[in-house]
Amino acid sequence: MSRPRKDRDGASTAISSPRDRDLRDSLAPIASGSSSTSSSTITAVGNALMAPFGHVQQKSDTSKIFSDLAPVIMTPRMVNATAAAAASSRTHPSNSIIAPTNLRRLDFATLGRAPMRLSLGSRRITSRDLQVVEATDELLHAEIPEPDPDAVASNVSLLRGFNATIPSSEKGKTRRRKTRNVDAPHMGLKKLGMNARGMLGDEDEQGETNDEIRPGDRRDKKGKRKPRPSLAADVKLGKEELGRQKDEILLDKENIHVRRSLINSEIDEIAQKIAALDALRSQLQQNLLLLHEEELELDDELEGVRERLAIEDKTLPSTNGNTSRTGRRRKGPAFLPSEHDDLPPGVAFMTLSGHTAPITTLDFSEPYGVLVSASQDDSTRLWDLCTGDEIGRLRGHKGTVKCMQVDDSTCLTGGADSTIRMWDLRRVGEDDEQPPLGDIPEIVDFEDALSERDSSKIRNGNTLVDVRAEDGACMRVLEGHSKEVSALYFEDTCLVSGASDKTLRQWDLSTGQCVLTMDILWAISHPAPSLHSSYSDLSSSTNITSGAFAVPTPPFADGSWEMYQDFVGAVQFWGYALVSGSGDGCVRMWDMRTGQAHRTLVGHTAPVTCLQFDEMHIVSGSLDKSLRIWDLRTGNTSETIRYDHPVTDLQFDTRKIVACCGENGVKIYNRTTMQQSTLSINGHTRPTEKLRYIDRYLASGAKDHTVKIWSL
After folding, report:
1. Angle between helices 59-69 and 76-88 (to 10 degrees)
2. Is a pLDDT exceeding 50 seen at residue 508?
3. Which residues, in sequence order, are CB contacts of 109 under 8 Å at separation 6+?
4. Residue 145, Cβ neighbours under 10 Å: how many?
5. What is the mean pLDDT of the segment spanning 274-288?
């Protein structure tokens, strides 16, 4: 307010304030009557109206004036912002009357001409923005629906989560505690706790106050013990206060639920991150194992190349054209065609159909070469693995072929007729083109017929064995076993066979002579003292020492079973070391120089059906539904793999073990990762019984009378 004073004439006037002077200066051009344009007049009027609002304390008056001038387009927030902008623009050059039109920031003429394009910032204001601004209070006071107790934190709004976590949410709890507080004597609990821990406080040095009441000193003047009085029994808070506290408690509970939901959301997010990291770690570990397998594969390939190089160095000076026969130990890598890489792994891409009974044995020399299969229909067929067509048959055995081995163009078969035959696969099919005997009548001389009969015999030791005309591919017949031959293995010119007569025989393929006979019954009757009790019960239960041997197999996956009569399940040798698996459940290691079994590996509880060994381990499968890995250095089982059905065949290398385990699929055990997998896509419809594989090329035979070719 201006302070009144008297002028020279005695009239009482007011001392002009800075506000009045600004208003007078703004109206001076109008009062002087100076000519100006209409635009200058409007600018002057605007400055006159804006001058009183320059003071900070008059912001509310400015807002009221702007609200009256533009009640439709101006909101309270816009009015306040406009007033602040007007106050800050007093010193700007655009506030001058003589300022150019393009330099002016804001005037009432502009507000009147373009009310909807008013923008206080870089963003254009729309009618939707005005609606949101006007409804701010209503939105803030709107009720939020109650959250589902089982719902996650995603249903919690941001505003509610903020209100639940700000420190002000704890004010109600603090106020309630102060309200319920009772003026009671100090109980000295802190001192009791310090004394219990053997600590001495500062109060002990200055003396203990008399107003402390210890819980143990509740006694009256007569020394009688009194009950502890209630701390808040006599305090009356009122219904209004109690209702307020009830609402606050309910709100605190809601806030706890919100915070719990937020914490659960964070926990779920962390769990998802951990799961993603675990998946990434598993993938990296899998990649590391794949690299390890590739390294092992390269080592095998390098070893094969070195062996092939050594063989070629030995056979290079020989020019007689005779190729030496080799055994199952592949001398060098098998190079698959480039088309094999395009085949999906783990899928049977070829089916060989033709047999009319379950497959008993099969073998092939190389991928995409020639495969030989035998069946219970007493037929032995040759297949072209490039086309999948049958190219011939091996005729000669009287009965089912139980075992075989193919190497290059040489094939050895052992049958139920107790004979072993050697075949030249290159000559198969030559005699099939000739007409059958009896179709063309021929008159021959009797003496010529006798001489021709004698010349058509092959000397087997001291025995002449007939070779019929249809057996042109058969090069030699070995006789010596008294029962069916169930296992054989050969390398170069050395052959070892096992039969149900409980003997193992070593043969010289160049002469056809049996050079050694090893009696398994003698080995059973003269076991090592520490091993006798291990297999005596099994020997007696299966009547091993008697003439007949027959054991019922456990049920296969399809529920079928059969009588197992192969006493010798498998044989393999390397140098002078021979390993055999027999019906008594034992794996025996023989010395072929002496014919004696020098070690017996006991562990299986049923006949051993298959085995294979390398420089470090022996892997054996049995009808006891297990597959055992033996350590040759210690003679103990290093690992046992259990299955649901009997194991009938297996083959392994440094990376995996492939086995037939009484199921429709072929089981693969990864020795690096110790994981099991099954080949079943486009596979057999009945349990598999026999298999052979080289590198990534596998052939399997099953009870569904078919042979499947797989890509590994």
Report:
1. 120
2. yes
3. 39, 42
4. 7
5. 89
Report whether 85 contacts 94 (CB < 8 A): no
Inter-residue contact 84 to 121 (CB < 8 Å):
no
How does 8-43 read in b/e, with b if 16+ C-beta sit within 10 Å?
A: eeeeeeeeeeeeeebbeebeebeeeeeeeeeeeeeb
**Distance, CA of 607 to CA of 535 (rounded, Å):** 11
Cα angle value 627/632/633 (rounded, 5°) = 135
Closest of 524, 491, 523 to residue 509, by C-alpha:
491
Query: Given the structure tokens 């995996």, which residue do they identify?
Result: 656
What's the pLDDT at 692?
Answer: 95
pLDDT, tens digit, 9 for 90 and up, residues 546-557: 667 889 999 999
> Residue 37 carries which side chain, given as an amino acid letter?
T
Longest dimension (CA), the chain: 181
Q: Provide the b/e sequence for 339-368 (b: ≥16 CB within 10 Å).
A: eeeebeebebebebebbeebbbbbbbbbbb
pLDDT at 136 over 60: yes
Mean pLDDT for the chain? 74
In angstroms, the CA 712 to CA 694 distance is 10
* Residue entry with tokens 């698959």: 336
CA distance 598 to 526: 11
